[in-house]
Amino acid sequence: MALATNFLGGVRSRLLPVQIPFRFFGAAVVFHVLAWLALLAGAVEFPRFAGGLGWPLAALHLLTLGVLVMTAIGASLQLLPVATRQPLRAPQWVAALWWLYAPGVAAVALGMGLGLVHLLAVGASVVVAALLLYAGLLGANLRGARGMPVVVAHGWAALVSLLVVLASAAALAGSYVGIPLLDRTQAVALHLPFTIYGFMGLLSLGLSYILVPMFALSPAPDPKQALVSLVLAVAALVLAAAAAAGLAPVTLRLAAAGLGLAAVLLHLRLMRVALRAGMRRELGLSFRLIHIGWLLLLAGLVGTAILALQPAYAGAPALFILLLVGGWLLSFLFGMLQRILPFLASMHTTGAGRRGHTPSSLTAQGPLKIHFVCHLAAQATLVLSVLADSPALARLGALLGVLGAAAFGLFFHTLCVRMRDGAPQGARVRT
Asked: pTM for this one?
C-alpha cells in the first residue's frame, strides 16, 4: 500500500504532455492490426516459418517493434520518471522520437514483407537511430534516479540488452544487403534472447514491481528477493551470449534456460505475494490476461530448453514465437495496457479544483471482452495450425487476431474520446 501511495503522490508533477505517450500507444494499436493482417497475407508460410524475408517475418516485427517496443517506449518514458522521482529533461525529444521511430518500423515491415532489401536496410537504420535516441533518454533519466532501486536496476539491465539487440539487428539487416557485420547464426542467437528475455522481458519484470502493487493496492515486494531474481536473469543472458559465441552452445543454453526459469519463478512468487496482500482482490480480465502471460512465459522457458537440444520438429520455431511473443509478451502487455491507459487518462482529466474521471468511467468493457476471447482463440488456433501444418487454420487464427486487435482499437478510441471530452479547458488531447 505504501508503494501505491508514494507512486501516485508523484504522478502529476512528472507526467509528460498527454499527446506524447498516447501517440506511442496509438501507434501500437495500429501496428497490432497491421501485424495480424501481415500474418493473414503470409498464412501459407506460417506453420513452418523459421526465418527469412516474407510476410510472417514482417508480422513478427510489427508485433515486436510496432507493438511491444512502441508500447515499451511510451510506458517507460511516462512511468520511469515517476519511479526515479525526476521528470524527463527534454520531452521535446520524446515527441521527435515518435516521428523517427514509427516510419522506420513501417519501412522495416514493408521491406520484409515485399522482399525489398534496400527498403529494409533504410528502415532498420532509422529504427536503430531512433532506439539509440530512446536509450539516451532512458539512460539520462536512470542516471539521476532517486527512488525505487529495484526498478532502476531492471531499467539499466534492459538498456544494456537493448544495445545488444540493436547491434545484432544491424548485423542481420546488413546480411541482407551484402554487408556481413557478424555471422548470421550468431546474430540470430543474440537477437532473439536479448529481445524477448532481455530488453522486453527485463523491462516488463521491472515495471511489474511498480504496476502490480499499485493496481492491487499492496505493499512493495521484497527488494532483496527482487534483486536476486534480476541477478539470475542477467546471468542467464550472459550464458546465452556465450552460447551464441559458440562456447558449449547446448550446455550453456540449457543452463541459461534453467537460470531464467529460476529468476521468473522467484519474480512470480513476489507477484503472488503482492496480489494476495492487496486490498483490491478482483482485478478483472486484465489480470487474467497477465496471469495467462506469466504461465506462457514459464512454458516458453521450458520450450527454450527443449530448443537448445536442437529437436528435428519443423514447427518448433513458430511454436517458440507463439509461446513467447504472442502468448507471454502480448498477453502481459495488453493486460497491463487495459489498466495503464485508463489510469493515465484519468490523471489528464483532472484540473485545478476539478475532479477528474475515474479509470472505470473511461473504460469500454465490451470491446475488451471481445479482445480477450479473440486474442486467446487466435493464439490457440495458430498453435493448432503449426501442429497440423495447416495454412487454413493459420488464416483463421489471423482473422481472429484481426478481430481482437480491432476490438482493442475500439477500446482505445473510446478512451481517447472520453478523455478528450473530460479534459480541463486548455488541456485537450491531441493524439
From this structure: 0.90
